[in-house]
Amino acid sequence: MSNKRSPKTDLSQPMVYQIRIKGHLGHQWTDWFGGLTITLENNGDTLLTGPVADQAALHGLLKKVRDLGLPLLSVIYVKPGQAGGPDVKR
After folding, report:
1. With 0-12 CB in 10 A as exposed, 13-18 as middle and 19+ as buried, what is 16?
2. CA angle, corner 23, sides to 66 and 87, nearest 5?
3. What CATH number did the domain enclosing 49 receive?
4. Hey, CA dihedral for 14, 26, 22, 62, is it positive or negative?
5. Residue 89 within any structural domain of the chain
6. CA atoms within 13 Å, Cβ hemisphere of 79
7. E strands of the chain, at which residues?
8. pLDDT tens track for 15-45
């Protein structure tokens, strides 16, 4: 395994993630999820989107999802410049 870092990754900037969970969360959960944007989807899923400082913070968010008892559907890293995020076919 190589210890080389990708020169395209700027570790000084927070990485943006989309966390998809089954079930709807109310917008009152925004603060609890560190200010991530909460989007309620028509299919009954909730999409949490926003910058995450580092891997420890990401694991903390995933722990919160687990503690709610809602099924985790996906975690997607949104590449810089990908404004709307990836097109996920469901």
Report:
1. middle
2. 95
3. 3.30.70
4. positive
5. no
6. 5
7. 15-22, 37-40, 45-52, 72-78
8. 999 999 999 998 889 899 989 999 999 999 9
**Is 27 domain-assigned?**
yes
* 8 Å CB contact between 19 and 72: yes
Place of tokens 């694991």: 59
User: Do the beta carbons of residue 50 and residue 14 sit within 8 Å?
Assistant: no
Q: With the CA atoms of 37, 56, 12 and 51 taken in that order, what torsion angle do they form, in degrees rounded to the nearest 10?
A: 0
pLDDT at 90: 33
Sort strands 72-78 and 37-40 into parallel, antiparallel or unpaired.
unpaired
Query: What residues make up the domain containing 59?
Result: 15-78
